[in-house]
Amino acid sequence: MAGVAAPTVRLLVLGVVRTRGEAHGYAVHRELMSWRVDTWTAVKPPSIYHAVKQLEREGKLHSVRAEPSPRGPARVVYGITESGVEEFFRLLEGALISPDIEEFGAGIAFMRSLPRDRVVELLAQQLTVSRQIGVELQDMKPQWPDAAEPPHAQHLLDLWTGVFDANARWTAAMLGRVRAGEFSFADDQTAGSAFRPGIT
Question: Model-level pTM?
């Protein structure tokens, strides 16, 4: 649908506001840029601000107050609504099983917002999906033109098979780390404790 922010940027924006408690658009942008999000997703500053405004219109974010800005008009500080929290968790769980590498990466960034057992379950699903796609891509090769002829479809299938094989290996390793007790998750957090998204 035209004008609708992609799931990845919606998840990132909601996740930042939820983690910080309150944030204006520039603070969300600054936080995401500090993660170098523009290097592992297609998310750019305009899409961040667009998502903030859209999420406010949808009632997922709400205006808390206006703060003076050293340049230009006052900045609107946003908080996340109950509907926004529900949307965040819906997008987060979807991202952790998504075959889209950018969306999956955004899910990994906020996976600690979920209980450990739920993350194990979702990563196991991601692993199954990645392996299955790799198999299906290889099964398609006989249906495509000769490998030596343009558009080299068989070679492209090998490329994408390699991508999903690599994703499966990475996911299997991460799944093992989570199962082994690495990282802290929502059910490990003490009341009132704060944590930054990510896997470090």
Answer: 0.86
Q: Where are the beta strands (DSSP E) in the chain?
A: 22-24, 61-67, 75-80
Instruction: Give the 3-state secondary structure of residue 80.
Output: strand
Residue 119: exposure state from Cβ atoms within 10 A (0-12, 13-18, ≥19) = buried
Burial classification of residue 148, based on how many CB atoms lie within 10 Å of its CB (0-12 exposed, 13-18 middle, 19 or more buried): exposed
Higher per-residue pLDDT: 6 or 142: 6
Rounded CA separation 72/74 (Å): 7
129 touches 48 (CB < 8 A): no
Tens digit of pLDDT for each residue in 35-51? 999 899 988 889 999 99
Residue with tokens 């990510």: 198
